[in-house]
Structure prediction request, 427 residues.
Amino acid sequence: KKGDLQEHLTRLEEAKKRDHRVLGKQLDLYSTDPRVGSGLILWHPNGAIIRMEIENFERELILKHGYQLVFTPHIMSEHIMSERLFEISGHLENFKESMFGSIEVEGSMYRPKPMNCPGHIAIYQSQQRSYRDLPIRMAEFGTVYRYERSGVLHGMLRVRGFTQDDAHVFCTWEQVGDEIGRLLDLVDEMLAAFGYPYSIELATKPAEKALGTDSEWREAEKLLADTLSARGVDFKIDEGGGAFYGPKLDFKLIDAIGREWQGPTVQLDFNLPERFEMVYVGEDNDRHRPVMLHRVLVGSMERFVGGLIEHYAGAFPVWLAPEQVRILPISEQWTESAQELVDDLSAAGVRASLVHRDTLNSRIRDAELHKVPYMGVVGEREAEAGTVAIRRRGAGKKQEIIEREAFIAAITREVQDRSLGDTELES
Prediction:
């Protein structure tokens, strides 16, 4: 229909304005360089701040949810992650086309890791585990490397090296339902901080390259479906979309213009514990197999930030904004007063800067171009009264005169609350 066509064209135009590659350059967030390698992201200081804030928030969140942080190497030798280990895990059989080749060093084979799972399994197996220890929840911001053809590389969204917020839960079969429920709560809390609504798909056994028996897959798929149904959560079935080692829940993020993005995943895995002969000592003093849950919240940090750039059209909420406040003295003689305000903001943990070159109008336009959430104008009246004239991003020429201490308190509260909207300023 004509109306549908117009809506489609409008969405295409809006998507073009939100292109993370254009905004990434405009806001100085990231770049790529063929000398470094195609598909490898160079995080600039502004982009690094966004990534740091996301990681800090998630780290705080998962520690509250009972996770323990671990770190594993980027490349691993035959003693930990050899060809043999990737054979055991099934990656060589089912994932080889996406893995970089191995190199021999002093008789040992090294390969950049495509996944963090084998390293976490090695940590689990470093000591004997009891049923009293379970569940064990390990989390890592682990960088992995996967081969992608140059023709499909796309900014931050399709790359060859990326950092996953990877976690693995090792538990008993009886604990799986509760752990899936905890993960659903964790996903909901995480995505709410970014303003993302989402849908859920249950991805079932792939037609090819699937480990395990049909009965194991049916049991695992039923457990995931029953857990969602018991919580009253709507979901769709993605036939054949599961990982090669087990079924999964895929969370599809819905951005500001209605597009879907790959988000968190929760994968139920009964195969790797069997292939690696993982055990725990049960209450009966016998040896039992744990169940393994794989989960990511943002998935690839590169892809998530690329999607956020487009979701917010580069206008990040204050807690994520690389530059939160820009202070603009009307003329040179008010620079000292303006600098005092910048110092007070910085002391309160606010990312603030002072810009005093060029005309005031050109400095305001530059702040708007860089999508700074707040501009604070300081002139004679503000310097004498201890106030600041605040201009909000997107509010045009409207200004609010506010006492400096009140503004610092308000923006500090907005950052601490990780607010997605404007804070009420008290004049």
In short: The radius of gyration is 25 Å. Residues 78-83 have pLDDT under 50 and may be disordered. DSSP finds 15 helices and 20 strands in the chain.
